[in-house]
Amino acid sequence: MNVAVTVDAREDIPVWLAYGTPVFTVLAALAVSAIALVVLDVNPVAAYATMFVETLFTEFGLRETLTKAVPLILTGLAVYLPLKAGLFNIGAEGQLVAGALAGTWIGLNVSLPGLALVPLMFVAAAVAGGIWAGIPAYLRAKWDVNEIITSLLLTFVALEIQSYLLRGPMQGGTGNFPQSERFSEAAMIPELLGGVHAGLLVAVVMVALTYVLMTKTRLGFEITFVGSNDEAAQQAGMSKFYVYLFVFVVGGAFAAMGGISEIAGAQGRYRAGFEPGYGFTAIPIALLGRNSAFKVMLAGLFFAVLFVGGSSMEVAFGVPAALVEIIQALVILFLITAEFFKSYRVGIDIKRGPTETPAQPQRGDD
């Protein structure tokens, strides 16, 4: 018996597989993470009830989740938009930091009423983040330099600039802590009902604008076309150079607005390390929601629940904080696996060999 595994390219993706991939991915990641909880002698059902139910159905948990979701949604869009053009923006963390620094400088040094100061802080942040993201975009568009490497390396440059500024020109407060002065009341993002700051509205508006851009405009069609086949797009008269610059610069602006929304909405001053990997968490967020900007928003909310609920689970059950990072890594792993099965059909071919008829013994002559 011969057993062969066959892998054939799919001509059509089943509807249930196309729409069910994010759900299957999350459920598989949680199921495998439950093994780690069992090893730690923690009841997975009770732990996940704390992570999800108590987070989503208590006033404090819901407020913290929505607040945490703002930078996650915006950085998710920063990765999602270049991804639609076939590019990987791995440097959203650096763009978030660049925007937070620029917005903080405006907030601390410009005296205006809050209605003018807060929008100016967002504009300054968006410009700084767009310029920071424009560097790897230009290098890729002009000289085909790998944007993964350049955007990632620029993240470390931004973090070093942050460290210098918060220990030098922008340092404030008491002691030698790497932090800025506290924002004035005018520089703080106003709160909505329920205690969530208005940065949530900014995130929702950016999601809606991105959705309209990608589904209702010629530019959105060009971005998708370039991402699927850049050579055919150029033959059709589309500018790959312009598309690459646009998606990265706008993506950088999104990440930067996420940075200043966290500083001026939740923190009240710029502290080193305010960003617990938002820019890198944006990668699985964008992969989960890669089919739509609104799915990016849902993925951002899911990861916000993981962050907030993970902290609650850590306190309630004494599990390591790294468990949330394990879940994130598993989401990426299962996403990659799901993408393979969306592209290829795997089958098992069993072949039986020819049946041999045993020789009949011959009877001797009597």
TrEMBL record:
Protein's UniProt keywords contain Cell wall biogenesis/degradation: no
UniProt membrane topology term: Multi-pass membrane protein
Signal peptide: none
UniProt keywords, alphabetically: Cell membrane, Membrane, Transmembrane, Transmembrane helix
GO molecular function: transmembrane transporter activity
Pfam families for the chain: BPD_transp_2
Protein's UniProt keywords contain Cytoplasm: no
InterPro entries: ABC_transp_permease
UniProt-recorded name of the protein: Sugar ABC transporter permease protein
Organism: Haloarcula vallismortis ATCC 29715
